[in-house]
User: What shape does this take?
Amino acid sequence: MKTDLQKKIALACKLTDRDQIARMNELHQTIFRKVDRAIERANSYELIFQKPDSLLSNELTEFIKFERLCCPWLLFQLTYQPEEGPISLKMGNSAETREMVKLVMELDKLKKPR
Assistant: This one.
């Protein structure tokens, strides 16, 4: 049975292909486990990856691609620090989009294995 949180996310998402949805959910699980710090701002969330592994850049690019299909109104900013420094992903451009990002992150926390 779907939770209220899952229903809200499903209503907002414009992605309809089952394989793409499955891959997007897999990416959510993978990427959100790698977050070292999440910073909540007035209009966005910034996810910080302090020590990115060799797969993270590709995972983030694919994640953004799917999220843009799902939520075409959402703003993404991907920042790479010099050398092998941290990578950050900022998502959102309003209080409403920040809340949607928060809902997605909370939903993914519920799915994490214990």
In short: Confidence is low (pLDDT under 50) at residues 110-114. The chain has one domain: 4-111. Residues 18-34 form the longest helix (17 residues). Strands lie at 37-40, 45-49, 76-80, 87-91.
